Amino acid sequence: MGKGGDASVVYRPSSKLSKRVPVEKPDFTVGTLRKAIPPHCFERSLLRSSGYVAADLLGMAALYFCSTFLDQPAVPRWLAYGLLWPTYWFFQGAVGTGVWVIAHECGHQAFSKWQVANDAVGLTLHSCLLVPYYSWKHSHRRHHSNTGSLEKDEVFVPPMKGSEADEFSLEQTAPVRLFYIIITLTLGWPMYLVANVSGRPYDRWANHFDPYSPIFSKRERLEVAISDLALVAVMGGLYSLAQSFGWLWLLKVYIIPYLVVNHWLVLITLMQHTHPDLPHYNSKEWDWLRGAMATVDRSYGFLDVLFHHIADTHVAHHLFSAMPHYHAEEASAAIKPILGKYYKEDKRNVFVAMWKDWNVCRFVAPDEAGNNVFWFQ
Questions:
Q1: Whole-number Å distance between alpha carbons of 121 and 107
Q2: Using CA atoms, how far apart are residues 215 and 199, in angstroms rounded to an integer?
Q3: Does 209 score more than 90 pLDDT?
């Protein structure tokens, strides 16, 4: 399939390929999808969005309050560190991920109608989670503008080969695969921010802290610097807390939940864009609509509520990123009948899916040399 949907390219019919999403241009447009969604779904309420922030922060405060009892002499150490602290870390990290998602919505201008309010809330929340708000806002916007493009997408850009290849790699063995998964889920986020690991290749070192990084345009440099200053302020505050309450206290109360947030962030974003049935396109074939649809919805069970449904309505989010999360489920239900086979949902346990798909999503290649559509191999 050449530029503009050239029908001369043959796609191999095969039973193992039957679940792939179509790559031909759809007979609907983004306007068709928008008209199918109730108009109120596009309404952004500062009051309602602020209510979700307040609920998340209240939840985090309540969890912290409960944690103050865990090191009391009456609590056995085996119980405190074998069950109670891990429970705190899990839920504090999950609620913190919800805060992360709302700050991410601020970057999309989905929090309210007012950009000043969006950026003020987003900068505050993301900085408290050690995220460079403006820097990531700009790179993430380009990800949404170029999803599925092998040349221009900003993150989780897979290695590319010129033809299908079935050669075995050491990474497919269980011990090496487990090692790579652990590194990805623990260090993947800071490695992306500091060294652009898994991001779009640039001709020089790219990162999210240097205002002159090739990721950013000249007009974005001041905001990158503001993000850096906000992070310095937060880290200074954390240092003061550690000096007052001890580094062990900071580790248990903040650092471990922070690492849990990073874990969920990487897992969610990686698995939204990694699936054997999703295509990638080179510049001769890519267009925005098909790229935006090259994502997958996944459920995390009861965590979907804490994550503000960022994972189980991700297809709708890529199509309409300025829509607030509290309308995403209704919007998703409205567009699924129109999307039809272009809609992809994976109901497998996400950890099982990650383990299995790590073997078959090592790189992308066309089914036949010269094709402009690439599939995970």
A1: 10
A2: 10
A3: yes
